Amino acid sequence: MEGRIHSTESFGTVDGPGIRFVVFMQGCPLRCKYCHNRDTWDVSGGTPLSCRELIKKILRDKPYFSSSGGGVTVSGGEPLLQAEFVTELFKELKTIGIHTCLDTSGSLPITSQIKELLQYTDLVLLDIKHINSEKCKELTGLSNDNELAFAKYLSNHQIPVWIRQVLVPGYTNDKFDLKNLKEFIDTLSNVENVEILPYHDLGKYKWKEMGLEYPFENIQAPSDKEIQEAKNILGI
User: Fold this and answer.
1) CA separation, residue 191 to residues 25, 27, 124 (Å)
2) Residue 66: its pLDDT value, please?
């Protein structure tokens, strides 16, 4: 089986614990206005790679996983779009003792294939785009119904999760919304970490290279004060 891979990154340190090999899958159902990987949206893009080819690349970094408590993170795009391939990859990684991490928005309905994938997933990085469903739809093109259902499924099955929130001034930094997010997180029994990811426009050039207008041209990165206020509300 082959997966469509956008890119890979060695020695990642921000996508889960320890030093990680990060696989960015091609294809995404969301249309986030601040997306810094705009070139991952097209499901027909990327490079076809087999699990065997990918594991060969991964094994070069295995000594660093052991010393740092790291492993492999599959991100995107949206990896759940290629759940069958990621399941095959994670199965192989588990047989050779490598920690598996899934970086997802949880924006797809939970299928039997996704349930199988989660059986081989040691950690989920769950990016809750917005706790308010209407605002989520405005920001990403989809409501948050699937995201929140995914979070509850992970909790019910005790699959460890780190909750992530991109902090976008004027969109996700409303104090009332952040309080609601905190209340929702408190209903989950499997949360190991909560992270604020400050908005940045480092991926803006990809939009322009594709001849597209960047929707958040006039949005500034959050200030240190705004970041700290959000952290205080979320109890980080």
Assistant:
1) 25, 27, 10
2) 86
Report the CATH number that the domain containing residue 40 is assigned in CATH. Answer: 3.20.20.70
Q: What is the mean pLDDT of the chain?
A: 96
Give the SS3 label for residue 75. strand
- Report whether pLDDT(219) > 90: yes
Number of domains forming the structure of the chain: 1
Query: For residue 125, how far is the Cα from the chain centroid?
Result: 6
Residue 68 Ramachandran class (φ > 0 left, ψ -120 to 50 alpha, else beta): alpha
Structure-model confidence comparison of residues 199 and 1, the more confident one: 199
Calpha distance 205→142 (Å, rounded):
24
Q: Is the dihedral of CA 74, 79, 82, 87 positive or negative?
A: positive
Which residue range forms the structural domain that includes residue 192?
2-234
pLDDT, position 1: 87
Give the total residue count for the chain.
236
Whose structure tokens read 């705009």? 38
CA–CA separation, 63 vs 13, rounded Å?
Answer: 15
Classify 176 in phi/psi space as left (phi over 0), alpha (psi -120 to 50) or beta: alpha
For the record, the structure tokens of 150 come out as: 């995914």
CB neighbours (10 Å) of residue 53? 14
Distances (CA, A) of 33 to 11, 58, 118, 212, 219: 28, 32, 28, 12, 11
